[in-house]
Amino acid sequence: MSTAGNSPKTAAGAPEAAPASNFLKNVIDHDLALPEYAARPWAGKPGPASVHTGAKADPARIRLRFPPEPNGYLHVGHAKAICVNFGLAEEYAGACHMRFDDTNPEKETEEFANSILDAVRWLGFGWTHFGDDNLYYASDYFEFMYSAAEFLIQAGLAYVDEQTPDEMRANRGTLTQPGQNSPYRERPASESLARFRAMRAGELPDGAAVLRAKIDMASPNMNMRDPAIYRIKRAHHIRTGDAWCIYPMYTFAHPIEDALERITHSFCTLEFEDQRPFYDWLLGNLARDHELPDGKRLQALLGHPLPKQVEFARLNLSYVITSKRKLQQLVSDGRVSGWDDPRMPTIVGLRRRGFTPSAIRLFCQRIGVSKSDSWIDYSVLEGALRDDLDPKAHRAVAVLDPVQLILDNVPDDWSDTCSAPVHPHHEDWGTRQFTIGKRLWIEAEDFMEDPPKKFFRLFPGNRVRLRYGYVIECTGCDKDEHGKVTAVHAQVFLDSKSGTPGADTYKVKGNLHWVDQATAVPARVRLYDRLFSDEHPDSSGKNFLDSLNPDSLTEVRAWLETGMSDVKAGDIYQFERHGYFVADLKDSAPGKLVFNRAVTLKDSWSK
Ligand code: ATP
Ligand code: MG
């Protein structure tokens, strides 16, 4: 049986929603009309002005980057950033760099780095453009960053501060009070240079000094009050080992990474808005010449045009947390089975849950990119998945809460074959065959001994059609000593088979799904509910662990239609009436099927 795979291709017929608004495109369109962007040189690899000056014009119309820190698995929020950056690069015939922002040695691992590359590839993006393999590591720029720091010191724009951390905090001021200048602020550049070199050489203990930019301790923007740009930290780095005992601060490193890679637009989330003045201050100063007091001239390190930071709203999804630290806690506390637990909003979790790359891309397209923060309802994510899967998922029948149905008027060995379309809108995909016999499984909820009005399924005396099979009339049921129904009895009308001339003579309102006990395939099926019962589990100081939903996972023993035994892990089906299900990537194997419900057929989330 051919099955609908969990493949990265957008299948024909997948819905293309009208793209939501994206103000970043206005920014790009505006900039591309400026002459300086047309003539940008690109040497084919990152580097300072000396590398790029005189190089050929950049074949990429824009250069963007996706810069995760390899300190966790990517989540649905990162998917938005990936779609924004790689997506816009694709749309504008540009390039998007895959860059590891690995300047903070402590929590970064190879496992995380590999998982990030897998996630980006799985979403259908790549980083090779115009023949360049644009996979970069910020740690490869440590030597340049160090020289940029010396440059600032020589230009009188940075100093080594040896106040204690407490003094530094006290002198920083508050939102309403200006800060106080450090007593080290006016030390001669030569002295700062010597101390900075001593920091690098490992002559000072951790925390004994920091290098600070010299800007303005009275600035209303706290980030401009002489921010720290280098600190001493004896920590082993996954790529540079023990070569360094000083590491650049993120706010210093990031703009430099962008400039070395000739990024045109550095798109980031809104919380970096207050960092933009420092971003521009830093790059502006590194990209110009400086006259020194002794008459010497410092030559600009970086070339124009400089990258431009533009902020957009991060993705906030209701009932979901998107903080790597908190997700890490769910994993390490054993609240979920791992980073790829199908309840996790990580890309590996979504993938195991049954999300396809095209569904996630459709979701990102629908939410658009805006300049102000808002919450997106979880139903938007699920809606994208439904709309993506509906035209491509093969259909199958599964009974999730089985009770037996016995057709009393046929012999024990009675058997027939029924058929149904693989997909109701793709006749060319053919049909599936399954058997029917005397003993079937139906959903327990499809029978009621004493039903309310408008119940059109099975109850004594009522007729229904067994979908793709025969019309039956219910005659009663068996019950155990607790009153629980153990079997439903019916008579089958053998001249009523679907697709035969007799079928039309029976008029029934109910149409039930069922599987044949003789050939049904057993499976474990995991049904998921939201992981948190609070719409905003971690907002305004709440402890997100308090709202963990204890019933977020239920596992049932189900029966699947004939022929489902050779399902491969990752295959996705619509189980009629129940929703979309994926054969679990980790636990499912032929003969030992495990399915995850990706999403129900109808929205049960939105209010
Ligand atoms: P966390 O704060 O959970 O550790 P992070 O945002 O700091 O995550 P990074 O590895 O620095 O993680 O993120 C890489 C990129 O993804 C950044 O450019 C960041 O702005 C973006 N990003 C992270 N979370 C979101 C989100 N919820 N919505 C949109 N973009 C996001
Ligand atoms: Mg970060």
From TrEMBL:
Pfam families, per this entry?
A: tRNA-synt_1c (PF00749), tRNA-synt_1c_C (PF03950), tRNA-synt_1c_C2 (PF20974)
Q: Which residues form the Glutamyl/glutaminyl-tRNA synthetase class Ib catalytic domain?
A: 62-375
- What UniProt keywords apply to this chain's record, in alphabetical order? Aminoacyl-tRNA synthetase, ATP-binding, Cytoplasm, Ligase, Nucleotide-binding, Protein biosynthesis
Q: Which residues form the Glutamyl/glutaminyl-tRNA synthetase class Ib anti-codon binding domain?
A: 393-491
According to the UniProt entry, what is the EC number of this protein? 6.1.1.18
Q: Which reaction does it catalyse?
A: tRNA(Gln) + L-glutamine + ATP = L-glutaminyl-tRNA(Gln) + AMP + diphosphate
Please indicate the residue ranges that the annotation assigns to the motif 'KMSKS' region.
321-325
Q: Does the keyword Chaperone apply?
A: no
**Protein family per UniProt:** Belongs to the class-I aminoacyl-tRNA synthetase family.
The identity of this protein, by name, is Glutamine--tRNA ligase
Q: What is the lineage of its organism?
A: Bacteria, Pseudomonadati, Pseudomonadota, Betaproteobacteria, Burkholderiales
Q: Which gene encodes it?
A: glnS
